[in-house]
Amino acid sequence: MAFPSLLVLLSLARLGLGSIFTTPTQVPASKKYDFIIVGAGTAGCVIAARLTEDPSVNVLLIEAGVSDNGTESATISVPLLAGSGIGTMFDWNYTSTAQSGLNGRIIPVPRGFVMGGSSSINSMIYSRGASDEYDRLADVSGDSGWSWNSLEQYRLKNEQHTPPWNNRSNVGEYNPSVHGHGPLLTGLTPTVFDADKRVIQTTVDNGAEYPFNLDFNSGNGLGFGWLQTTVGHSARSTSSSAYLHPALNSRSNLDLLLHTQVTRLVSTSGKLTFRGVQVAQTATAPQYSFNATKEVILSAGTVGTPQLLMLSGIGPSHQLKNVGVTPLLDLEDVGANLQDQSIVILQWEVTGTTLSPFLNNATAFQDALAQYAFNKTGIAAGNTVVNTIGFLRLPSNSTLLKAGDPAAGPNAPHFQFSFLVSLQSFHRFAPTTGNWMSVSIVVQSPTSRGSLNLTSSSAFVHPTINPEYYTTAFDIGTAIQAFKTLRGFLTTPAWDGFVIEPFSTVAALNTDAEIETYIRTFANSLDHPTSTAKISKITEKGGVVGPTLLVKGATGLRIVDASILPSSPAGFPQAEVYIVAERAADLIKSAWSLS
Fold first, then answer.
1. CA atoms of 232 and 526, how far apart (whole Å)
2. Can you give the residue ranges of the Glucose-methanol-choline oxidoreductase N-terminal domain (predicted)?
C-alpha cells in the first residue's frame, strides 16, 4: 500500500477544512454523513464538490486508490506523460478475457486507481460528442432533461477554455461561445506540426467530402478539426484537481477516505434499502461499516459499480448464486451490455517535422522534463502528440447499414481518425529513426456487446471483463471501410510530397482480408468501457437505473458514472460523464431540497 504524501498528512491537521483519512479507523465514529459516495473518479469528485456547496450537508467520499499528489504524481500530471500512468500504481490493472475477435488475445483494461479516477490516467481528450448522443440518452431514459438542449447549463458549468502555456493564438480553431466557466480546464495544442496543417488544408481543398468542424464540443459530431484536451495552466486538469481539491481546501463538510475499498453495500432499514457500506483495505484486513442518512451514490465506474452491485446481491440471480452471493434484487442487466471502443493504429514515414526524433532522444526527453519541473514551460507543458481529429459516417448506401444504423443519429459518426505526430505502435519492433506520423482508427458506434461477471464473492478478486471486440459484421466491416477512407484521405493534394511510405506491415494491406487480419492482430482497447448498469425508462423492466439514476427496485442507492450510459458514445466518454454528473448533482439536491 502506498504511503500518504506529506501534503495529505498536512491536510489532516488543517482546522476547518475537509479531512483526508488513510484508514477507516481515522473516521470519527460520532460523525454522521448524509451521503456516502463510492469512488473519487470522474463523476464522484463532481458529486462530492457540488453536494457540499450546501454547508448543511456532510459527505464521505471513499476511494480505493491512491493520492494524486504523492511522490509519483508527475506521471499523471505532466501533459507530455499522458498515458504513462497506465499499468502503474495508478491503475486497477484489469485485463479482459481472451478475445475471440482479436485472435484470442487478452487486452489490458485500464481504469484509474487514484483520486480523479480515469480522468487522471486517460489521454486527456475532451470531446462532448454529437448532440444526438444526448438526445438518445433522453429518449432511452424517457427524460427530456438529458437532451442536448436541456443540458446546456451543465456543459457550461463543467469546463472553461484556457490558452496554451506559450499563449499561441488559437483564433479560428475553436468556438468560444460553446465553452463555459467551469472548474475543468481545457485547451488546444501549444505546438502545430506539419501533419496538423495538412489535415486542416484537406478540409479546405476537399470540404464537401472532408468538412471542417470548428469545435467538436458544439454538438456537431462530424468533420475534421482541432482536438481539445483537459490541459490548463501547463498541467493535466482532472476531476480531482478541478473539483475535489478545491472543495477539500475550503469546506469542513467533505471527508475523503483513501486506500479503502468498499466491499459491499449494506441494507439498513429494509431489505432493499441500501444506505450502508462495508469497507476494508485488503482481503484479510478488518471490515468496517459506514452509514448514510440519505443516499449511497455509486461512482465506481463501468467495472467497479456492477461488481459492487453484484457482491451486494443486486444483479442476475443465477450468476450471484454461482459465486456464493445471496440474491436480494434480481436485475438481469447488471454487468450486461458492456461496450468498449477498440483502436488500431497505422504508421507512415513522412518528410515533415514530427515528435519522433524527440521521443527517441532520451537526453532531449529528460531535458524537457527538467525544464517543466523548473518553470512548467516547454514541450512537456502541453498536449502535442494528437492535435487533429476527424469523425466520419459510412456512406448512406453502405451495406453495413442494412440491418440498421447503430449511431445515435445522423449527426453522430461511425468511425474516427486521430492524427498522431509520432510513431505510435502496438508492434513489438518499431523504427527508432526518421519522422513518423501515425493515424488511429476507432469504430465509434460499435454493435458488439459483452459482459462483466463475478468470479468470486470477494471484492478483491477482479471480475471477468469480456468486451467482445469485433464480434459483429458491422464492427469489423466499419473498421475495414475506415482504413480505405483513410487511404483516400492521405492521397489528396494536401499530402503530396509529405508521405514517404507506410510502415512495412501497413504497406502490405491491399485486400479486405489483409486489412481484417491486421486489425485482429494489432487492435487494442481505447479504454472507453460503458453501459454495465445502463439507464432505461422507469416503466421498463430492463436496465439498472431509471431517469434520475436511482437503482430500480432499491431505496437509497443511486449510480453516477459511465456505467449508466445506454451505449458507447461516439466521442470521448469523460466529457459526457462530467456533464451527466453535473446534472445528477442537481437531481440529488432537488430530491432532498438542498441548496
1. 23
2. 301-315
Q: Name residue, grid cell 453516477.
A: 560
For residue 123, how far is the Cα from the chain centroid? 9
Q: Which three cell numbers stand for residue 61?
A: 467520499
114 is in an annotated binding site: yes
Cell of 180: 463555459
Contact 401, 394 (CB under 8 A): yes
Whether the predicted model's global pTM rises above the 0.85 cut: yes
- Find the radius of gyration of the CA atoms of the chain: 23
Helices 42-51, 573-591: inter-axial angle, 10-degree rounding: 30
pLDDT tens track of the chain, all 595 residues?
343 443 444 334 343 589 999 999 999 999 999 999 999 999 999 999 999 999 999 999 999 999 999 889 999 999 999 999 999 999 999 999 999 999 999 999 999 999 999 999 999 999 999 999 999 999 999 999 999 999 999 999 999 999 999 999 999 999 999 999 999 999 999 999 999 999 999 999 999 999 999 999 999 999 999 999 999 999 999 999 999 999 999 999 999 999 999 999 999 887 899 999 999 999 999 999 999 999 999 999 999 999 999 999 999 999 999 999 999 999 999 999 999 999 999 999 999 999 999 999 999 999 999 999 999 999 999 999 999 999 999 999 999 999 999 999 999 999 999 999 999 876 656 788 999 999 999 999 999 999 999 999 999 999 999 999 999 999 999 999 999 999 999 999 999 999 999 998 898 899 999 999 999 999 999 999 999 999 999 999 999 999 999 999 999 999 999 999 999 999 899 999 999 999 999 999 999 999 9
CA 193 to each of CA 213, 355, 421, 437, 492: distance values in angstroms, whole numbers, following the listed order: 19, 9, 7, 10, 18
The closest alpha carbon to 526, from 345, 303, 334, 304, belongs to 345
Element (H, E) at 202: helix 194-205
574 has binding-site annotation: yes
What's the rounded Cα separation, in Å, for the pair 240 and 249? 12
Q: Could you tell me if 109 and 525 are in contact, meaning their C-beta atoms sit under 8 angstroms apart? A: yes
Pairing type for strands 342-350 and 464-466 reads unpaired
CA torsion, ordered 283, 288, 294, 299, to nearest 10 deg? -20
| Set of cell numbers at residue 529 | 468501457
